Model the fold of this input.
Amino acid sequence: MKISARNVFKGTISNIVSGSVNSEIDITLGGNDKIVAIVTNGSVTALGLKTGKEVTALIKASSILVMTDSTGFALSARNVLAGKVSKVSNGQVSSEIGISLSSGITVFATITHDAVKELDIKEGVSASAVFKASSVILGVAQ
Amino acid sequence: MKISARNVFKGTISNIVSGSVNSEIDITLGGNDKIVAIVTNGSVTALGLKTGKEVTALIKASSILVMTDSTGFALSARNVLAGKVSKVSNGQVSSEIGISLSSGITVFATITHDAVKELDIKEGVSASAVFKASSVILGVAQ
Amino acid sequence: MKISARNVFKGTISNIVSGSVNSEIDITLGGNDKIVAIVTNGSVTALGLKTGKEVTALIKASSILVMTDSTGFALSARNVLAGKVSKVSNGQVSSEIGISLSSGITVFATITHDAVKELDIKEGVSASAVFKASSVILGVAQ
Done:
């Protein structure tokens, strides 16, 4: 598969909780990072998703926020992956930020250049990649 | 909290409607602007969301559309905030648009530069910020 | 209606499946292309959505992924529209890609410039526009 998503992570389904329309899928990546995805029950059936199955989680860089300080705050976003900024690439309006997790995985986010300046985001700074479970697309080999 | 979302709005929960998996949360900002968010019931419990509670609504600029004319049209997007364009910052591909609401709040959207040209978006023009309830992340102080 | 969404497609509702909170709406465009949208049941009622009704589907370019090879892979994203790349406009961080479908419709996606380079996306290449049903906003004339 060749797709433009900057974030393509292989993992294994560790849990599934099904609602009436959607299911919540927990995916354990290498190095103990975990991602939560929400997909329709139709996709669960069509892709044969079940605990133990290998899947690929795709997250578009534009769906990801960069948080440099969460002191005293809790968020409704289900995915908060902590690491260190390893790349900052600035355009006029947009910037691409790489956050390297301790497991070795790098998560890419596109945010505004203004946000980079205001938060003083630069290489080496501690930061978390924040994204909603509904921003994750799942893929399976067939 | 320091996070890259260009839109960070403090408000108070004015209503909650719970479904089987998700809940719809109405948030009243200062100046009578209102935002609707959809989050999972798990987040409602984890964050202790209830009517009257103060929350912060986060919306990424890339999740927001700019509408300059809605004559004769209704949209499924739950959030349509009307104001005037107060900032236009153009890159080669992307542009950042600020829309100032009558309450004094400014909403930032990143859209394509092509859209800015086609809609002739410039400072002073009337415009609405349009975004889905599912694009809102909620945060609470702990 | 004048709105910044790069993708504004007129079509007719061909099917509706309602869950407890959301409904899945199938929309048939001209030329047999089909789009699936998920909106809240509240919007279904407010907009009077029903089979046969004409609607406009809006998808922000930043919600769309570009896939150049899906061999051996299935995705949870409900919308995969196959065509050929007809436009590549590169910025420093972001690029805008046009994918022309056989029906004559062009779908626009904004992806990172890095993705364009890695996937070697250029005019004439076969590619699919991939987006989630939850990324679609529906509009109706009133």
Observations:
- The mean pLDDT of chain C is 94.
- Chain C has two domains: 7-60+132-139, 61-131.
